[in-house]
Specification:
The chain is built from 8 helices and 6 strands, in the order H-H-E-E-H-E-H-E-H-H-H-E-E-H. By secondary structure, the protein is of the alpha+beta class. It has a single domain, classed as Leucine Aminopeptidase, subunit E, domain 1. The protein starts with a helix and ends in a 12-residue tail after the last helix.
Length: 221
Amino acid sequence: MRSTFRQKILQECGTKILDDFKQFPDLELSECVITDCYSLSNFRKIIHVVLPKFNQDFENACESSLHLAIRNIFDICLEKNIHSICFGYEIFLPSNHFRLDKSLHIVLRTLRKCLEKFDKKFSAIFLIIEKSEIDLFNQMKEALCVYFPRSFQEEEFFKDKLAIYNSLNVTEFGDAILAERQLDCKSDLRKFYDGKNSLVEISEFQEFYVKDEDDIKNYKM
């Protein structure tokens, strides 16, 4: 099995960090928690996040979960007043089934968007890669130049590649906006189904609904 950041942290911290985890028995997907780093002298805290495992049948959900994991890391850092973050390379490889080019661009796109939003809150972002991860290193070198060009020349050179990723409709934090997730909510609703495949006039619905204690007029989204 490949040596991982997680395994190395467990080796350094021993059973103390495992005892910390007993406080969080039911972590949700993309959820973050923060613990002490104990004997890891180069760090002040450790942020643990539940990463998605890729499933072809739920590709969009997996990608959104990875985006949300990065976003949650930034949120917990803002909450705890942490000004620098070090990402282990496993953040780009949530599982052996996650395509590297996909996960890499999701993470870097989210990093870029979050830093555009909170750049004054953070002093440094570190990305750690194992020497053995040659493919990840080579792809990351190019992807970093796309999302974080160091000069006008790099910006111009990778402009066409960035245009490919910019063609994706995303939120202000970099999550993909998919057409099937969008709601077209209109204010001119006149009829709705009553659950018996028959249309009921909205006036009848209002008359029925206000019989309950919750007045429809006071209901707010």
